[in-house]
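The material for today's practical consists of a large collection of protein records. Getting from the letters to the tokens is the skill we practise here. To make this concrete, we reproduce a full record directly below:
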Amino acid sequence: ETIEYTQESMDEAVKKVTQMEANMGGTEILQPLKKIYKTAVRPDHPRQLFVFTDGEVGNTKQVIEEVQRNAHNHRCFAFGIGEGASTSLIKGISRAAGGTCEFITGKERMQPKVLKALKNALQPTVKEISLKWTLPPGMESVLLSKPPSNIFQGHRAIVYAQLKGKIDEGKEGEVSLEYKFKDENFRNSIKFPFKVEKVERPTIHRLGAKALISELENGANSESEEVKKRIVESSTQSGVISSLTAFVAVNKETKAPVQGPPIRRDIPTPGLMFGMPMACQQSMPNA
């Protein structure tokens, strides 16, 4: 729950921290993150999340994916304390949500690094971001990636859109970016001509497909068959790899067709220490 900062709320928070105890049962970050993301954000107060950990988790990939799924409405600052903190976890979640990461080791003091991140978090943000399109009749724009709800100082945002409909190369379109900064409204517009590139799989199309695939893979319905089908279609049409497709190398010199079903291969990946079993990843070309 988000509450207003007062001396009373500060004292209550300090009291709760002093009552916390470690049960030495391992580091659990995913469930607390999910609970935080389910709580509503107060209007005009973008979420700034500070994560402190002195260990590692067994589901680093899932934690980073959860942070990335919610990266459009918050920023995450991560701090690794001591020699046992997971570098991949700390760097991964801060990178996924556009924050910064710090490591406190040896006799280093935590306060300067935390205050540095806090100062960065208190900078004003760009908010209420929207795109307005002016297109010829019969055309429409479809966003391939979710626009951010906030843009923090020093960060950038890239939004891809697909224009559908009959293209008239003699016409022009216009897109306007509207946003609010320090309680003042701004609008920036740019006009563009309709010109079809005579290139197979232009780079900008592949980048747009990559953004769409990432959006689908990290979405709430990523396990549904309909979404999986769309991921595979987008991947094979654009030539951009996904979690459900793979590139297959074919030796054309033999001039012989590839025959037989796909073969499963178990590829060992680094597992956790302390006697944990080695994880195996299934690799099967799907497309």
The chain has seven helices and eleven strands. Residues 252-283 form one domain. The CA atoms of residues 47 and 225 lie 33 Å apart.
